[in-house]
Write a structure and sequence with these properties.
This protein has 199 residues and is α/β, with parallel strands linked by helices. The protein has one domain: Rossmann fold, CATH 3.40.50.170. The chain is 37% helix and 22% strand. The protein is built from 6 helices and 7 strands. The chain has a 7-stranded mixed β-sheet, sandwiched between helices. α1 runs parallel beside α6 and α5 crosses α6. The longest helix has 28 residues. It is globular, with a radius of gyration of 16 Å. Its EC number is 2.1.2.2. One of its GO terms (molecular function) is phosphoribosylglycinamide formyltransferase activity. InterPro entries: Formyl_transf_N, Formyl_transf_N_sf, GART, GART_AS.
């Protein structure tokens, strides 16, 4: 069910500062946006993105994963309850540093998106910028993709390229890729919502 303005209801999962989350919220608050971020959920109560989301008028909750130990399913059941209560239609991962169980991935099949800081299928997982530099790549970038059970293996929705400079470090490259992420993710999410939910 869309909200009264016909916008797709998006929830964002974060673990940290939430800069991509903020970009999604801002884009979703534009008058012509096809989606709106209605909920932010973090597995870390200290995540800086929670305060940012609330300051932008978005409901934000923390469900600390630590008391659950290895019980990922128990933690995800509470996350899912929040998603359902918010009448979420699309879930967007934005720096969510938890591997999702097949149960949650299956529950949101074809409605769960992520942004990854490499040009997939190159460099799934962590340390993408250091790996790109070590390989001598001339181009790096980011990818928005659907989430499947495999790590960073889902269908690609959009990509943006960033040139690798001669004196780049992992830090300097990551900063430019992050800027590209902030532009790509809202655009890709908007297109996906239109394609997925509008006739």
């Amino acid at each position: 069910m869309n909200d009264t303005r016909g916008r797709v209801r998006v929830a964002v999962l974060i673990s940290g500062a939430g800069s991509n989350m903020a970009a999604l919220i801002d884009a979703g608050q534009r008058p012509d946006a096809p989606y709106e971020v209605v909920l932010v959920v973090s597995n870390d109560p200290d995540a800086g993105g929670l305060a940012i989301a609330r300051a932008k008028g978005v409901a934000a909750v923390a469900i600390d994963h630590r008391p659950f130990g290895k019980d990922r399913a128990g933690h995800e059941a509470l996350v899912q309850a929040q998603l359902a209560a918010a009448e979420t239609q699309i879930v967007a991962l934005a720096g969510y540093m938890r591997l999702l169980t097949p149960w949650l991935v299956g529950r949101w099949a074809d409605r769960l998106v992520n942004i990854h800081p490499s040009l997939l299928p190159r460099y799934p997982g962590l340390d993408t910028h250091a790996r790109a530099l070590a390989a001598g790549d001339s181009v790096a970038g980011c990818t928005v993709h659907l989430v499947t059970e495999g790590v960073d293996e889902g269908p690609i929705l959009a990509q943006a390229q960033v040139s690798v400079l001669k004196d780049d470090t992992p830090t300097s490259l990551s900063q430019r890729v992050l800027a590209a992420e902030h532009a790509l993710y809202p655009e890709a999410l908007a297109r996906f919502c239109i394609d997925r939910f509008r006739p």
